[in-house]
Amino acid sequence: MGLKEQVTEFIDTKLEDYRLSSACPQAIEAAKRCGYLEKWNQQEIGASAIAGAAEMAIPGLGGLTMIAGIGFLLHKMARVSWGIGTLKDAFPIETEEYSDITNVLAIWANDSKYDRNVVAFKAISVDALHYYLSNEDIQEKVDDTVENTPLNSDELLIHTLTALQLFANDVTSDAKSAKLLETIGMSAASSVTARAAKKYATKKVAQKTVGRAVRKKVATKVATRFAAKVGGKAILSFIPVGGALINAGLNMKTLNDMRLAAEKYYDEKLTRNDLENL
Question: The domain containing residue 74 runs over which residues?
Answer without folding.
Answer: 3-276
